[in-house]
Amino acid sequence: MATTLAKAAEGAVAERTHAARIEHVSKSFPGPAGSQLVLDDISLDVAPGEFVTLLGASGCGKSTLLNLVAGLDKPSAGRIETAGRPALMFQEHALFPWLTAGKNIELALRLRGVAKADRKPEAERLLELVRLGGAYGKRVHELSGGMRQRVALARALAQDSRLLLMDEPFAALDAITRDVLHGELTRIWAETGVSVLFVTHNVREAVRLAERVVLLSSRPGRIAKEWTVDIAQPRRIEDADVAELSLEITEHLRGEIRRHGQH
Ligand SMILES: Nc1ncnc2c1ncn2[C@@H]1O[C@H](COP(=O)(O)OP(=O)(O)OP(=O)(O)O)[C@@H](O)[C@H]1O
Ligand SMILES: [Mg+2]
Asked: 3-class DSSP state for residue 54?
């Protein structure tokens, strides 16, 4: 009994101090030439309410790490703890095309156990939050790419998770739409206090959004360096401070890519 209580107390403390804790995580996949080490000894904490971007060259293991944090796969070594089950958002919206925007969100609410009568007003509130009020009855094919990603964001928020995992969610959008959604995400993050772990290979995007940028090296992925972004929000991607830090980080990213012989 005493041990159980002690464990519960320990858990409560751990929950307060981080939204995600990645401890000495490595991941290997079987390959034609034997096992391939993709992630090597990654340790990273995301604090409650923190916005962290994970930056690295293509193929360095960003999505692999995010999938491990999401619990979609298991680390080969090390451990990962999250405060509750994280919500996920990917480059492709993964909305159900036969459902309306509103019903896609209500499905997430239903899975969360929200009572039937409360689902529609909550879906409408979430659509307002992503500035899509009025899109409740629209089917996915009637929405633009940017609108679909807004619905996908609303659906992720419907899970009411304390940790939002985002894997290049705006990569397929045009620059202007992406810029608008950066602003929306920053606003929603500040309003909801959700923690975000955001994967990108776009340095400017990483600096535009995050409080902390973590650079992964390639083959295997290791934490190469990290930066605290001490620039007031709301930022613009073209701000001089954003550009200056992006330049510094790009130099390091180029160094990592050169070291591994990629182009
Ligand atoms: N299920 C798997 N089985 C075998 N190899 C895998 C698997 N998943 C990923 N890999 C390999 O792990 C490496 C990292 O892949 P990952 O998708 O994590 O990279 P990434 O950093 O997200 O790249 P990108 O920026 O292109 O999305 C790649 O070499 C990939 O081929
Ligand atoms: Mg990826």
From this structure: strand
Mutate to test the pocket of ligand 1, among 26, 39, 63, 215 (most ligand atoms within 8 A of CB): 63
Which phi and psi (to 5°) does residue 45 adopt? Answer: -110, 145
Torsion of CA 212, 153, 62, 92, to 10 degrees: -150
Q: What is the pLDDT of residue 263?
A: 44
Residue nearest to atom 28 of ligand 1 (CA): 59
Q: Cβ < 6 Å from ligand 1: which residues? A: 29, 38, 56, 58-64, 201
Q: Distance between CA 212 and CA 210 in Å, rounded?
A: 5
Residue given tokens 């979430």 in the structure block:
126
How far, in Å, CA of 206 to CA of 237, rounded?
A: 10
C-alpha torsion angle, residues 191, 122, 162, 239 (rounded to 10): -30
**What tens digit of pLDDT does each residue of 113-150 get?**
999 999 999 999 999 999 999 999 999 999 999 999 99
102 CA distance to ligand 2 centroid (A)?
Answer: 28
Half-sphere exposure of residue 21: CA atoms within 13 angstroms, side-chain side: 13
What's the CA-to-centroid distance between 58 and ligand 1, angstroms?
Answer: 8
Closest-CA residue, ligand 1 atom 29, reads 59
d(CA 162, CA 87): 8
Per-residue pLDDT reduced to its tens digit, 243-255 = 999 999 999 999 9
| Residue among 188, 184, 189, 159 at smallest CA distance from 170 | 184
- Residue 97's alpha-carbon distances to 89, 127, 129, 168, 207, in angstroms, are 16, 17, 22, 21, 33
